[in-house]
Amino acid sequence: xxxxxxxxxxxxxxxxxxxxxxxxxxxxxxxxxxxxxxxxxxxxxxxxxxxxxxxxxxxxxxxxxxxxxxxxxxxxxxxxxxxxxxxxxxxxxxxxxxxxxxxxxxxxxxxx
Length: 112
Description:
45% helix; ATP synthase protein I; transmembrane; transmembrane helix; membrane
């Protein structure tokens, strides 16, 4: 009698293949990391810059609350910038051909 071979099962003693994006070399596997760092930089940069502006205005005007308003404005502005750059969207283009990827496949364009 012979042993039944089950497709998808490894022989005993052979290592299992690694799942996930790490198993696909050559792909842009750090795109999520880069986008996350860009979002973090926009938000932290906005908070720092607008807090310093608020601190300066507080010093000039003798108030104490503009630095907090500057920090909130900087965080909102950083998130807005990252959203406008398309870094906060979790949607991916479907079908592989987006409108911004180039001319249509048949070569026709709307320009006349």
